[in-house]
Design goal:
Strand content: under 5%
Shape: rod-shaped
Order of helices and strands: HHH
Number of strands: 0
Helix content: 40-55%
Mean pLDDT: 81
Structural class: mainly alpha
Number of helices: 3
Low-confidence stretches: none
Amino acid sequence: MRRTAKDHGFILCLLLNMVFRFEWCVAAIVYYCLHLWLHFPLFPTFVLLGIWVLYALVITVVFSLANRAADTPTPYPENKNPYSKSTDDYLGGEQR
């Protein structure tokens, strides 16, 4: 069946991957709480959030490439049955 969408929901898959990998974000949340209470620098929080997003992005890209590779059709194998009728009779080949 022909697909009508070009992007196949890449953004939706990325958001779902980020939800499924939420435990990677827990370190950033803890570090942000430390920033609020003990005035730690805020830069490592953004680094941890960036690692979380990049990890989810890489996994999503790998899955989308695997999905695209699975969509390639397999070529029709050559008929090697000696008892089947050949198509040469219809295409102007030798007649017996």
